[in-house]
Amino acid sequence: MRYDPEIKKFALSIYFLSSRTYRELQKSIALPSVRFLHLFTERWNIVPGINNKIFEALKLKLNSLPLIERHCILCADEMSLKSHLFYNISKNGNYWI
């Protein structure tokens, strides 16, 4: 079954609220499976650096929280590169994997 992008976002926001509630709603509403949601988020091509997908995911998660729990800290740090890692040319040469 194909789902509209808005349905996918809606399903993710419900799942972020409560996975148990999501599974109960699946019994009465045609929602994507939990596995589909995991695959959907895994396909997001999030690369190092500032990326709008990261902020979209944070927005979905934070909108699902009560106002009192919407405290968020975004921390950026550097990392060391290991000798066994290689440069990924297929990703436009933007990062190391």
TrEMBL record:
Residues 2-37 form the THAP9-like helix-turn-helix domain. It comes from the Eukaryota. Pfam families: TNP-like_RNaseH_N, Tnp_P_element. Residues 48-91 form the Transposable element P transposase-like RNase H domain. This is Transposase.
